[in-house]
Amino acid sequence: MDTFNGLPLHPLVVHAVVVLLPLSVVGAIVVALRPAWRQTYGWLVAGLLVVATALTPVATSSGEALEKRVGDPGRHAELGDQLIWFEIALLVVLVAMLVLHRRGVVSAAARGVAVLVLIASVAAAVQVYRVGDSGAKAVWGDTTSEAGGS
């Protein structure tokens, strides 16, 4: 789990997570706010989230392999290891909301689960940002600000 076609695997897999997880977050927010769209789009969103969640351990494993080649990425590795827990929490409440919707449950509990989907979505979005930001800083440091003449 180190390279693919001569390239480090980590940045390749990370980009899949960086695309799929925010798409899943936006989708989860939309279906939480628009119950009429849950039946049509909810399971698609859950599927995207499953793929993002499944790729996260691949990203962390490949990151550990890359770390052996290039050195410790600092806080990035720690934040990356935490990301899966945010994804799992979002996946659990999203699926719970979709199951309740499919069963026709319209109650305060169902609305509460939708609120939990919103909270878990925001938390996952913040965490994926933190992971990406720390990764960019680990790779690029201050080179972008130096190039801009600042």
TrEMBL record:
The keyword Lipid metabolism does not apply. Residues 6-142 form the DUF2231 domain. Keywords: Membrane, Transmembrane, Transmembrane helix. Signal peptide: none annotated. Pfam families: DUF2231 (PF09990). InterPro entries: DUF2231_TM. The chain crosses the membrane at residues 12-33, 40-63, 83-100, 112-129. The keyword NADP does not apply. This is DUF2231 domain-containing protein.
